[in-house]
Amino acid sequence: MRPGGSRGDLCLVAPATTSPEIWHLNPVFLWQGGLIEALEVHDVASGDSLWRVDLFNFLPRLRYNGPGLEPGREYTWTLYDDLTGDAIMKADFQVMESDERQRIATELEQLTQDLRDSGADPLDIGLARITYFAEQELWADALTEVYLTRPAAPALSHYVREVTKRICGE
Fold this sequence. Notes:
Elements: E1 2-3, E2 6-7, E3 10-14, E4 21-22, E5 28-32, E6 36-43, E7 49-54, E8 61-63, E9 74-81, E10 87-95, H1 98-117, H2 122-135, H3 139-148, H4 154-168
Parallel strand pairs: 1-10, 4-10
Antiparallel strand pairs: 2-3, 3-5, 5-8, 6-7, 6-9, 9-10
């Protein structure tokens, strides 16, 4: 099994080695290519499996909804081959420490409130949050925000494609 990055047509986009620290406690896992049977998240310190999902007919993304991820802890997400069931790729990530998470939460609350006060619609607020995370180089969080933003817009799909190209080297 190879950690992070890409193998053949399979590429781990987020969270991945390009952005291993995350703010969201329920991140979106995003990959490109490959026939994948399952995705599993492990706690690095304990080795315990926290969450495993069979991926029959899923798009190459999935939002985490397992047991709560904790600030400061490290995790690994692993993809399993559809044909063999073997673990084929993994990437480590860490939820940022509580004080940093709180700083960002406060800034996001202020950003969101300022935009609401100025009459911004939900899409504009979502785009501002995506931009905020991108400016912090928290790419996994920027991509998670893409999938949380409603209504979805063609510009958001384009953003995901561009980030994926940059990470996967296409």
